[in-house]
């Protein structure tokens, strides 16, 4: 049975966009005396895919839903790795991991779980070449000695295997290559998908064959309501039961509503602006540093993000394993102009910045404020707000100049962000640095956790000092629940889960 504290994910602050709320039938979603019923969830970022093995393998909206459907071999419980679908594991040698799978698990269709399903899932994640594939770059062989034993052999020691496995969702081997399966997928988890309309809605129903504690909810209904005012209205009108990522100025009024409960908490998430270091003028670190010095982040944060987060001290939030504080970039327009002149742009330049609709709390206002400050030093930035699917496609193709987004180190381990995103082979932001690669690969291979932490601190300093991106804010999360929603417990991994929730 999965640990409740492990499964209940925290929520990164996500965006403010521009549609109106959809309507919910409140009569059909009332809880019953035993807590059963439909939990009505308004997610502020659209769920565009339920396939966790390809382009959306690290997409938070996708993972928020699929974690209710699929399970992983291991989980992180109170900071420690614990068994889940795998009962135990060993290291016969530094290059080999062997996992003993439970023999009492079935998928929602009654098919028994076997090692073939685990192998197919890991292979699909690697073959999908999505954002998580790089975590498994050193895998040489995936073996299935018997139906309940899985072996993973790597070309070099991989100290992050267990951490990585917390994001490997196990799907049926017979279905995993069928794209149509992910229109209504099922796994071994407490819920299964009954309907899915990309970008709009997802309906989950209880998996009565689930081996663990049965969810108290009969169904979970996700609806995309991008506009803040729409979600607030839906809450106050009893059209939804839960939403998150509301801007701070909305929370004050909601705290005074007796029908609502507001929870705020720290997360593993942060706000960042990346530069495409493979495109002029961002090939020059002086230009990237100038972009940072040119913006008055302290003033902007005070006006837009009060109680929504804290000023970042590095490229990772402080609570993450391997994070380390770095020297801040002060607001200094004169320094920015000096750096631009040294880089050959005394009169500035024209560029663009993209972001996805719904990516970030107060995203449009934040972009406007930065663009205004950049203009003061001669940098003209064209704003490009894109639908999420379009933004993600351009992001992965490196078809952009700069981009604004939020992200979460979901595993709580620095490798998930630093190695996954900043290795030269990742090709995520156009930045290449052999010295950084060497440190990150050494950290990934290191089995001594103290040494790993030291190496990630060194890597974080390079990313920060080279201004691969701007890292202004570590995010706090917030969730607003209607009275009668019981059992929700946030944790910092940015994946809100509702399997433990009941309604009264």
TrEMBL record:
One of its GO terms (molecular function) is peptide transmembrane transporter activity. GO terms for cellular component: ATP-binding cassette (ABC) transporter complex; periplasmic space. Keywords: Signal. Pfam families: SBP_bac_5. Residues 80-427 form the Solute-binding protein family domain. InterPro entries: Peptide/Ni-bd, SBP_5, SBP_5_dom. GO terms for biological process: peptide transport. Residues 1-23 form the signal peptide. This is Solute-binding protein family 5 domain-containing protein. It comes from Micromonospora rosaria.
């Amino acid at each position: 049975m999965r640990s409740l504290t492990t499964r209940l994910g925290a929520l990164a602050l996500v965006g403010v966009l521009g549609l109106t709320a959809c309507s919910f039938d409140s009569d059909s979603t009332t809880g019953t005396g035993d807590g059963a019923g439909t939990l009505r969830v308004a997610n502020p970022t659209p769920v565009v895919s339920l396939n966790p093995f390809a382009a959306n393998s690290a997409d938070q909206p996708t993972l928020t839903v699929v974690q209710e459907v699929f399970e992983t071999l291991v989980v992180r419980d109170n900071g420690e790795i614990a068994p889940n679908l795998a009962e135990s594991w060993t290291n016969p040698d530094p290059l080999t991991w062997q996992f003993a799978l439970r023999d009492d698990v079935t998928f929602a269709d009654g098919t028994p779980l076997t090692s073939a399903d685990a192998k197919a899932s890991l292979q699909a994640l690697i073959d999908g070449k999505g954002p998580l594939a790089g975590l498994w770059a050193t895998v040489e062989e995936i073996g299935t000695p018997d139906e309940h034993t899985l072996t993973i052999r790597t070309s070099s020691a991989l100290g992050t295997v267990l951490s990585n496995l917390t994001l490997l969702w196990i799907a049926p081997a017979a279905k995993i290559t069928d794209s149509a399966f992910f229109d209504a997928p099922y796994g071994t988890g407490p819920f299964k998908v009954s309907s899915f309309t990309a970008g709009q809605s997802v309906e989950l129903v209880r998996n009565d064959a689930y081996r663990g504690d049965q969810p108290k909810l009969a169904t979970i209904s996700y609806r995309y309501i991008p506009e803040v005012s729409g979600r607030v209205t839906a809450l106050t009108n009893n059209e939804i039961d839960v939403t998150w990522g509301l801007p701070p100025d909305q929370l004050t009024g909601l705290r005074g509503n007796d029908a609502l409960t507001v929870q705020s908490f720290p997360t593993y998430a942060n706000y960042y602006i990346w530069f495409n270091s493979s495109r002029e003028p961002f090939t020059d670190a002086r230009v990237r540093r100038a972009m940072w010095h040119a913006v008055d982040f302290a003033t902007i944060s005070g006006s837009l993000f009060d109680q929504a987060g804290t000023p970042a001290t590095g490229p990772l939030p402080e609570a993450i394993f391997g994070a380390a504080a770095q020297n801040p970039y002060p607001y200094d327009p004169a320094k920015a102009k000096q750096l631009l002149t040294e880089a050959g742009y005394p009169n500035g330049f024209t560029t663009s910045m993209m972001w996805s609709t719904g990516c970030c709390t107060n995203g449009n206002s934040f972009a406007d404020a930065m663009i205004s400050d950049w203009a003061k030093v001669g940098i003209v930035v064209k704003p490009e707000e894109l639908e999420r699917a379009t933004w993600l496609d351009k992001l992965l193709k490196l078809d952009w100049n700069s981009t604004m987004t939020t992200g979460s180190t979901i595993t709580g381990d620095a490798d998930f962000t630093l190695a996954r995103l900043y290795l030269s082979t990742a090709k995520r932001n156009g930045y290449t640095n052999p010295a950084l690669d060497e440190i990150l690969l050494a950290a990934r291979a290191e089995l001594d956790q103290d040494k790993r932490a030291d190496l990630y601190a060194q890597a974080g300093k390079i990313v920060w000092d080279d201004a691969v991106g701007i890292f202004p804010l570590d995010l706090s999360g917030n969730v607003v629940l209607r009275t009668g929603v019981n059992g929700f417990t946030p944790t910092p991994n940015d994946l809100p889960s509702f399997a433990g929730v009941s309604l009264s």
